[in-house]
Amino acid sequence: MWLPIRIDEQRPEPLYHQIEVQLRGLILGGQLAEGTLLPSIRELAGTLKCSAITVRRVYQDLENERLIRTRQGMGTFVAGVEASARDEHRLERASEALAQAVDTGLQLQCTLEELERIFGDLIRSRREEGRPNGNA
Amino acid sequence: MAMPNEAYRAASDPAIEAAVSLHGVKLASERFSLGPIDCDVPIGYVTAIVGTNGSGKSSLMRMLLGLEPIRSGEASVLGTRIVPGGDEGYKTRVGFLAELPHAHENAMTADEKAKFASQWYPSWDWERYRRLMRQFECDGGAKLNKLSKGMRRKVELSVTLAHDPELLLLDEPSSGLDPFAWRMMLDELQRYMDSGERTLVIATHITEEVRRLADYILFLDRGRYLGLYERDRLLDGWRTLLVQHVGGGSGSESALRRTPGLQGLTEAGAGVYRLEVDEPEQGEAYVRSAGFQVLASQRMELEDILSCLIRKEEAKR
């Protein structure tokens, strides 16, 4: 199976870290359902042009986090993820994205009130545009 | 200062089982010497032997089959020590594709070569041989010297892979292959490695092969062994930094010489320097603290890392 994982060679993070973050995101984000058979280590290494050692490291880490499970002779599968873990991940991702925006705002000398106003305005305008989840 | 490179080396990990184990191995003939080499090639992985022409790639491969006399040191392959007149049984568990075709096979057809090989290898699998020949679109009945270079290479690959060897030694396997056959070969080698129990050692000068296949890289340069490295750690760990002294002055070049993990330093323009480092984080932090601004920080190509390793080795002499 093909996984939407991309390595950015210009990024300073090590290859295994880039792959791990994306694969973890696909599992916790629900794009990869429980029971999905993942590519073999050699197969994924070939597609991503990274070494089998790197993919093995990623699979081992995610197995330790109980996100995937390897069954002898059958392959590696996506494990069941609890709703609480999924929620935690969702909030973590949103918080990371917001932190970046806040950093930019602070660099531009914005006050808390200004940032809160921008935040509120953005949410309202998204709702008016009828963006998915904007009116939740 | 720590020895940063040591951390990237595979050889030091005793937990890894070795398909090939070399300790202080030296080869020497009148014209050429190689080594000493100290490394363990791990089972289950692809190790690419990379080096310039005449660096000793083929000699190293031939040594593993007892075809080059070992002057000193110890070499073992699949647990068998390589000594003159020693046990050669291990060779039935090895598949070897030489750099050049054997002239004495010129008048043979592919099927005749396969028949000969089938008697030598107990694990020979005709089914597998035919599948490979079909896939590579080879005609088993044609005489080998009537085939194009690439076609003959495909026949030889099929024969080499047909007994599903535990250890596969390929010396420049893709020479003469067209791009489609080349892709097919890579897929086939990936399939061969899939069980996780097979070991591939491939001598190549094609970077794309190293990028697609290799887990470890063994660097050679004019008979000198430069180390066995885990490829992705090497690519993750080496960086080119372009730095400029803040304020436009020339800064102190001697301060840059003390950068952690420094592997190379050149002046790229007035007050602008190009550094090669293998401890990027510490390196960047250091140059900043020394009053330099980092204009660019980029991963390095394998070729550039290799030339750094060569320069460093030369500086030792």
What is the oligomer described by this structure?
Answer: heterodimer
**CATH architecture heading of the largest domain in chain B:** 3-Layer(aba) Sandwich
Number of domains of chain B: 2
Can you summarize the main beta sheet of chain A? 2 strands, antiparallel
- Number of strand segments of chain B: 14
CATH superfamily of the largest domain in chain B: P-loop containing nucleotide triphosphate hydrolases
What does this structure look like?
- The complex is a heterodimer of chains A (136) and B (317).
- With 136 residues, chain A is mainly α.
- Chain A has helices at residues 15-28, 41-48, 52-64, 83-107, 112-128, and strands at 68-71, 75-78.
- Chain A has 2 domains: 15-78, Orthogonal Bundle (Arc Repressor Mutant, subunit A), CATH 1.10.10; 83-128.
- In chain A, 21% of the residues are buried.
- The model of chain A has no long low-confidence stretch (mean pLDDT 88).
- Chain B is of the alpha/beta class and 317 residues long.
- Chain B folds into 2 domains: 4-234, 3-Layer(aba) Sandwich (Rossmann fold); 239-299, 2-Layer Sandwich (Alpha-Beta Plaits), CATH 3.30.70.100.
- Chain B is 33% helix and 29% strand.
- Chain B contains 11 helices and 14 strands.
- In chain B, the strands form 3 sheets. A 6-stranded mixed sheet of chain B has the order 6-7-8-3-9-10, with helices on both faces. In chain B, strands 2-1-4-5 form a 4-stranded antiparallel sheet, covered by helices on one side. A 4-stranded antiparallel sheet of chain B has the order 12-13-11-14, with helices on both faces.
- In chain B, strand 12 and strand 13 form a beta hairpin.
- Chain B is elongated, with a radius of gyration of 23 Å.
- Chain B starts with a helix and ends with a helix.
- The model of chain B is unreliable at 1-15 (pLDDT under 50).
- The interface between A and B is medium-sized, with 18 and 24 residues.
